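User: Can you help me understand a structure? I only have the sequence.
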Amino acid sequence: MTDAVGRKLELGMEGLRIAALGPLRAWRGERQLDTGPAQQRAVLTSLTLRRGQVASADELVQDVWGSDAPASAHVAVRNHVSRLRTALESESAAPRTLVSVAGGYALHLPDGALDVSRAERLYSRAQAARSQGELEPAVHILAEAEALWAGTPLTGVPGPYAQRQRDRLMEYRLLLVEARLTVELQLGGHARVVGELLALADEHPLREGLRALEMLALYRCGRQADALAVYTTARRHLAAELGVDPGPELVGLHQRILEADPTLAPPPGAAAGSPAPGPAAGSDRPTWVPPAQAPPDVPDFTGRQEESRRLRDALSGAARTDATAPVISVIHGMGGVGKTALAVHAAHAVREQFPDGQLYADLRGTGRERANPYEVQELFLRSMGVLAGNVPSGREARTALYRSRMAGRRLLLLLDNAADTEQVSPLLPGTAGSAALITSRTALMCLPATTRTALEPFSEPEALALLERMAGGERCRQEQETARDLVRACGLLPLAVRVVGARLVARPRWTLTTLAERLSDRSQRLGELEAGSLAVESVFHLGYSTLDDTEARAFRLLAIPEVPDLSPAAAAAVLQCGRREAEALLDALAHHGLLEPGEPGRYRYHDLLRLFARHRTLDTDPDAARQAALSRVARYYLTGTSSAMRAERPYSQLPDAADPDGMPGAAAFADARHAQEWVLHELPAMLAVAGQILHHPYRPVSAEDTHTLSSLLALLMPFTDFCLPWDAIHQLSPALLRAADHHGARLATLFSCITAAVACARLGHHKEAAVLAARAHEQLDAADRVLAPRAVYTMGVVADARPDGLDEAIGHYRSAHALACENGEPGMAAQCSVSLARAQLALDRPHQALEAARDALAHCPPGTNPVGTALARRVLGDALMGLDRYDEAVTEYRTALGVCRAHGLHAQRAHTLLSLASALAAVGRPEQAGTCAAEGGAALVQLGDPTGEERARAVMDRLAVAGPSDPQEQHTAVGGEH
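Assistant: Let's start by predicting it. Here is the structure, written out as tokens:
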């Protein structure tokens, strides 16, 4: 940043400014703000000088009162923060400057808004100028830094923290003064500064650096005796006050003065008593000193072996003789994932490949004050030996000089924390031989990158390895499972694991279990993931603070449904907007590194980012708005499931009974396969949202949500091609039934009883299942033509699950079949006949089973009901097996397989393959039988169907011991599946 720009920031800034180098003051524009009484100013001092880091309430109490804090100190801190927020924020209702973070507070100031930061930046610029031999500019810069002091720092601010900072800042001013006076002497200005040095040395008699400068200035002014007297005085003070002798520097200077060392003479051209001119532009100082600006490598860098290798290979390619363009490598990923650590590690690994040096800049892409790339160009040019006066002011001319200066050299640029392509492009090298290594939260897709590394959180072994390196291998091995719990609680995020490791290092008496227990409370987890300057929540807040209001609202609300991932359609339901708008918002959040793109068209939160977003929504959004968002996504899943069932079973009347109103913009499915895939993909999310609504600790379930969820679970029941998680459904049922009873919702009660009864039957809770099925039947009235056969059919399913209930089940299936035929529902009639056939087979009545299977097939005209057709063909094959008509059974099973393949009925296909295996063995084709059984078993493993896997193992065991002459064994395997 140029001096003119710095003065413009200092004097004309419209935003917030704070001065600590004197009385503590604050301004917005030209208006000075009221910072309140002394203790309030002490709180402001503590927050300001932490430079955006979080201060807990306990730390603020300690800073202001020390060990004498009164009982009301925490209340006083909250009141002081509240009043400061009113004074400092432009909109105190939506604070963005003084924010609450994880039980503490942080003050986020724009770049250049704090005079201490400006002084530090000016000192760094002066040091850079000195290193390049630009002494006169260095003097002016140091003088500008000194001018920022307006008296004793933090005058009138009480408390131990303010006193420590006051001492530090007074020491820092002396450092600046010594640096300026040193450069003045290098320029030959001994006569100009000798008086100032005499006064300063008397004020600080024990400061040997000032004494040395005083002696040199006096000697160059021809006052050799006075210079030697200064040494005597300094030695006397040091002995009296500290009991020590002068250091080597002062002793050596004293000896050189005694010997009239010619190297102590003023620089050429500087007459005694007059300042010497600065160095000419054509001086013999080096024009190129290879810069080495990369930050130090992380000593305990862990993991990332493959990513490191790929980066090293890519960057090393810049040195290839056939290279025609610079190498551009981008590392992108969410905040805290370790992008900078990987980039620095890779940069050090290839430093020998870039003999002309390494340039580094933090582009501050996630902050409010992003680095200006043309100001970074100026810093890089000066690092490459260009004098400040020779840097063009125009962007085009400066870029041309920048590229020209880099041409023909082999430099590595490390550009950290880039915001976008526009910020990076002016900094890229223009010719082959050099390379740029860029980190960003976005992939910078418009940048012509050579390689891109999408950095994900650690694998579990990598996270454990870092924890062991920090906390100690023996310590972690003693509590191996707890160590795993710790890194999982960190979401395997490298920054979070590093914080946990740092906390364990700082507390050697803590066990891993102690910290794991503190992290187990999800509401407090982010607050626990903080150690010194490392804070996960602060890193997340940087990205969040750059969002506009619409993006911030989307980030908060989309975290409310605790689902594995989100599609644009589901996001549109949550946000109550159009699908295209939702997709644009999802892309924007992914661009900011606050969402992770998952499978094509889907997005997910990292666990810790979801926690951060949920904290923000609890602080910002009303409870009603959060509940409405959850209700909308539940309604979306209901409508999607009813649309899927209409596509898969167009003959069924159940969707109209469960979801008569539908929903605008509901998912439309081209065919049954796509409908089934959608339900299968969204099933975990549906059950998760249902659990959120039903198991909320204090919010009652609304009538609307009761209807939505009871209808949704009822519509899932017919999707028999899936392995439904009956445990999860069973856990949801009691709360859903209580809500239905509370609201007096008869249909919701009926649906809930049917769902709960089937789940109980599947889990072996036979008495509970019978009570629920009977209660569902009791809820029926004369208008329930669609639900009546289903309620009766449920009674059959419940009886069928009992070993002694098959005859009772047959009666219910026949009654349900009659009701379905009355109602004109052939698909439901076919389902009843399939179940009837299976019950007859279980009772070893193959003739009756064959009759029922043929009836099921008759209710499935070709092309109208693929699920029913496949089931009917398979149970028909089972009946033929029971009648020893094996060749006919093989034919039916093959026909069923054709239907399954054509319509994507994956689970049905797997079970049919097992049945076909038994039939093939019965007709003397053991090899084909083994192939079918293996294929079916593998498919069931992939589908996650444990019951199916058990059946597959039984079939394969029988195939291994039974030959083709033992058909009865083969029939048992087929008839055993209900």
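Now, to help you interpret it: The first helix runs from residue 3 to 12. Residues 1-13, 271-287, 963-978 have pLDDT under 50 and may be disordered. Let me know which part you'd like to focus on.
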